[in-house]
Amino acid sequence: MSVDRTLRNASISGRLRDLHIVGGLLADRGAAGAAEVDLEGARLIPGLHDHHIHLAAAAAAVDSVSLTPDELVAGGGLGALLRAARQRHPEGWLRGIGYDLTQSGWLDRRDLDEVAVGPVRIQDRTGSRWVLDSTGLAEVLGDRADGSPQPDGVERDAAGRPTGHLVRLDAWMRERLPPHQPDWLRLGQRLAAHGVTSVTDAGHLNDLAALAMLASANLPQRIWAMTKGSVTSFAMPEPTGRVVVDAVKIVLDDDALPRLDLLAQQVEAAHAVDRGVAVHCVTDVQLALALSAGLGPGDRIEHANVVPEGYAELIARAGVAVCVQPGLIATRGDRYLDEVEPDRHHELFRLRALAAAGVPLLGGSDAPLGPISPWRGIEAATTRRTGSGAVLGADEGLGPVTAAKMYQRSAGRGWPVRVLAPGDPADLLVLGDDAPSGPEVVATLVEGVVVHGSL
Questions:
Q1: Structural domain total, the chain
Q2: Is it the case that residue 137 has pLDDT exceeding 70?
Q3: Domain Amidohydrolase: where (predicted)?
């Protein structure tokens, strides 16, 4: 429950001010009998919003095995990490995340069979592909493992045997796995510790059941959620609270691009029910197609990993926002530098060009595929440094204040930058000393409730 408070001597934009919280909202004067807290000059800023996160996957990642290239080196390799995880969890499925099939080596079911810790499933770093061992594959395929018809996405070798790779089959696979309760509590605590007070779930398969699950998760953060196109409105009754329905999510894939007229119909259908669209675009081809489909104010481009010359101006003229994940520069930048032609490196993860053209930039983590801390995203947006220390597009760096504003924009259409105005939700951060990983978050408040630290 929110407590009416007056925060004295808060340092806000370099000036000492008092801030009043009444009924979970900021107010221009304090309530009678409000508790008073002297912040003694501590910095106070608006809470941060993660504009692109996958909440269920991020919660599942809390008790998954991290298999990033760095973790593999530190932990003695794939086999050692999986065997150690099996000792901690003697029964049931093992779930690995963050494995880079390009950098760490290609895997199939036979490689995982040799480790002998099944059933196990490992998610590729891109998030679109799972690799299962034979035990796990038999469990999800059932009696169809003998070669009977299977859904698109079950890969087979030249002899017709399943390789263990399942591509874009998350929902199908989830129906065939034992029920698993995500660790919502620890996820909410992690987000709050990083100063995240609200989030946008970017699931492209979100339906009413998924939205109900998010509402019942009881995260301390306020939630906006994208949905599949068939969901037009949703509100949960008390006491589970409310999930705000956000944009219709549209995923583009270079291997299966839709016809332009069909994509335009999807955009028009969303606009007809006063919904924006959020279009997944990680290549220049996808970006060009999206911009030709009738996007306008209130719509979003997700990722925009590649922005050719002149496209920033096209995006700005359309009135479209771009949700970027600069933390991926730190975790995947070296891979992009290796895989993309050198004469196109300047097109990668562009930020300054988009900001200069007047495009609203929204900051997201893409967790669990990217680092969950917004401070890592802010740092990467300013330094442009990859994991190896290389600089990816130094000319595209932002100043620290501009970088932070990407995470201080409100959710919903317009995405205004929050300025601690009366009537706004009391989503606040009290900050301590600066550190390389970001400032110390002394306290996090959501609608006036302390959800991390103390005042």
A1: 3
A2: yes
A3: 36-452
